[in-house]
Design a protein that fits this description.
Blueprint: E1 36-38, E2 41-48, E3 51-58, E4 64-65, E5 74-81, E6 88-93, E7 99-105, E8 112-123, E9 129-131, E10 133-135, E11 143-149, E12 152-158, E13 166-167, E14 188-191, E15 205-206, E16 215-222, E17 231-235, E18 243-246, E19 250-255, E20 260-265
Antiparallel strand pairs: 1-2, 2-3, 3-4, 5-6, 6-7, 7-8, 8-9, 10-11, 11-12, 12-13, 14-16, 15-16, 16-17, 17-18, 19-20
Length: about 280
């Protein structure tokens, strides 16, 4: 077993790359496994004095330290998106244990402003961090997030990459056509935002680039997100309105650019019905 504890970041030009003309943007070592190359950005992390420091290079230019508002003291960071020449990042600060704050950057990825506080997070089965944030496929800048407010978790939606957030309007009627009495902001629709790691199966929320504006998700109607009374909901207008489609969890597959949706009930018994 080889343990790599020292990682250096070296740069040189492809046509003339030798030991002599390699450059080191950082005097010391970068943290192992901290290198991220995504679109126009390169990210690295260095730890000094027991605190992590985050650096970014835009279009392969000189590295600059990423600057959060002066009151922020980050202890962990995850790059969520680099679409449209902006960095969308989730940052866990010194006083947070099970939540992250979302930040949005300028074009160079250097200066960040707060987009949403206290997004719920959890640890996956392999110890990996999972943040309750879902980027809707097919529509740039559209995200769903589960925000913790006074020990309640509520689902919020943004269409402009975190500048504005709002609660989800619950359906007007339930599966049987009976009216649903749910008044914002006291009551709204809340969704589970976990994504399946298996590309051949649906998670409990799904959207596709080939079927923009169609979202299928499991969740509940009420004052907060719940693990009981879970139903399935669909939106065909990018999360603006929703309707209930099942009272139990189903896996949903997209066919024909969303012209056909196929649902299978979550069960250990043999599948006898497709919806």
């Amino acid at each position: 077993v080889v343990l790599i504890t020292n990682s250096q970041y070296l740069t040189c030009r492809m046509h003339n790359c030798t030991e002599a003309n390699r450059h080191k943007p950082f005097p010391g070592y970068i943290d192992p496994d901290s290198l991220i190359v995504q679109d126009d950005y390169v990210f690295v992390q260095l730890t000094s004095g027991g605190r992590p420091h985050y650096y970014v290079s835009y279009r392969r230019n000189t590295f600059a330290q990423m600057k959060l508002p002066k009151y922020a003291l980050p202890k962990d960071m995850h790059v969520i998106s680099t679409d449209e020449n902006q960095v969308f990042a989730a940052v866990q600060e010194w006083n947070q244990n099970d939540t992250y704050n979302l930040y949005i950057s300028d074009t160079r990825g250097v200066y960040f402003t707060l987009a949403l506080e206290n997004v719920q997070s959890s640890r996956g089965p392999e110890g990996n961090i999972m943040i309750d944030l879902y980027e809707v496929a097919g529509i740039k800048g559209m995200f769903l997030a589960n925000k913790k407010i006074d020990n309640q978790v509520k689902t919020f939606i943004t269409y402009n990459k975190g500048r504005d957030w709002r609660l989800l309007q619950a359906p007007d009627t339930d599966l049987r056509g009976d009216p649903v009495h749910c008044l914002l902001p006291y009551c709204s629709l809340h969704l589970h935002l976990k994504v399946s790691e298996n590309p051949y199966t649906s998670g409990i929320i799904a959207s596709r680039d080939t079927a923009p504006s169609i979202i299928v998700a499991s969740g509940n109607i009420g004052s907060e997100l719940s693990d009981s009374d879970i139903s399935m909901f669909v939106s065909s207008d990018a999360g603006n309105t929703w309707r209930q489609i099942f009272e139990e969890e189903h896996s949903v597959l997209y066919l024909d650019q969303g012209g056909v949706l196929v649902a299978m009930k979550h069960t250990s018994l043999p599948i006898r019905h497709l919806w």
